[in-house]
Amino acid sequence: MKVYGDTNSGNCLKVKWVCDHLALPYTWVAIDTLKGETRTAEFLKLNGAGQVPTVELDDGRTLAQSNAIIRYLARGSRLIPDDAFAQGKMDEWLFWEQYSHEPYVAVCRFQMFYLKKPVSDLDPEKVKRGYAALARMEHQLVLTPFLVGDAITLADISLLAYTRVAHEGGFDLDGYAAVRRWIGETEKFLKLPPAR
């Protein structure tokens, strides 16, 4: 299996972390999105949307979209709950992450960390929505150790990717004690060094 990804992307790191945690054999194919490497004719044959991560399976089939990929890779593992309702709650978080978290937290991070914009240049609405996402996570993580209860699921891995580096997008996590605890525990579970 080949994983086409950019290690600067939290969406790509989700796939790497799941592969590593489950000891799945893969070859990492580094793609530099800032250099336009997802827009080459060769890459567009793999993924017509021109996005990473993209996985090429041994039989040549390809799969895109980070949460779809990790859902596929983790089938049959402890990262997906056995209970159907718990699976639904996990999926609820996975869909929410791409719609209500990543477009704000990750976009602000991209603008500050890669485009070197100051906090004052960030779209105030994106900042507001990013803090709303963090507040929703905090509310849940005060109630349960992880997003879907007592055990780590794909929901935690998915949300960890950009939450652990939210400070690089100007987000102050000082008021989010449960989120900070959860970041540390999920990083430890995945054997990741703490985010810089």
Automatic annotation (TrEMBL):
Keywords: Transferase. Signal peptide: none annotated. SUPFAM superfamilies: GST C-terminal domain-like, Thioredoxin-like. Transmembrane segments: none annotated. PROSITE patterns: GST_CTER, GST_NTER. The keyword Cytoplasm does not apply. This is Glutathione S-transferase. It comes from Bradyrhizobium lablabi. The lineage of its organism: Bacteria, Pseudomonadati, Pseudomonadota, Alphaproteobacteria, Hyphomicrobiales.
